[in-house]
Specification:
Cd81 Antigen, Extracellular Domain, Chain: A, 6 helices, elongated, 0% strand, 74% helix
Length: 148
């Protein structure tokens, strides 16, 4: 970005049209790519959901299969904060032959019923609800870039 800014500054200071054209073209391409990325995400959001779901499932399985303690801690923290369990539901643990962790229970008490909703869906719904905020932030960034 500093290289791009240099083209703009040098073009303005030296009154060099070539530098200003290069600056304008590259900045326009960056903005166009950002708009294209937004359109692609909106167009293929179902495919993105499936990719996220399979990726989350793979991380879950590797963490428990290879006893990756740090990853297990992250998964359990996610389960506590989002009040969810497993990828699709708590049955993911049972089907994989693992005990349901305490993080899947309200108040971390195994005497209660575990959270029924899976973390993959819960996290995606959380992000979906935050989408307006994300869109506003991206809009502000684009606006600043256009003014730049």
């Amino acid at each position: 970005t500093s290289c791009l800014a240099s083209f703009g500054c040098l073009g303005a200071i030296c009154q060099n049209r070539l530098f200003l054209y290069v600056y304008a073209v590259i900045l326009s391409l960056i903005i166009l790519l950002e708009f294209t990325a937004v359109i692609i995400v909106l167009r293929f959001r179902n495919d993105l959901w499936q990719t996220y779901d399979s990726g989350f499932r793979e991380i879950f399985q590797k963490a428990y299969r290879y006893n990756e303690i740090e990853m297990i801690k992250i998964i359990e923290q996610l389960e506590r904060e989002f009040k969810c369990c497993g990828v699709s539901s708590y049955t993911d643990y049972i089907q994989s032959g693992y005990n349901i962790p305490r993080s899947c229970y309200p108040n971390q008490l195994p005497k209660e019923n575990p959270f029924n909703q899976g973390c993959a869906e819960t996290v995606v719904l959380w992000a979906w609800n935050k989408l307006p905020i994300i869109a506003v932030v991206l809009g502000i960034i684009l606006f600043i870039e256009i003014l730049g």
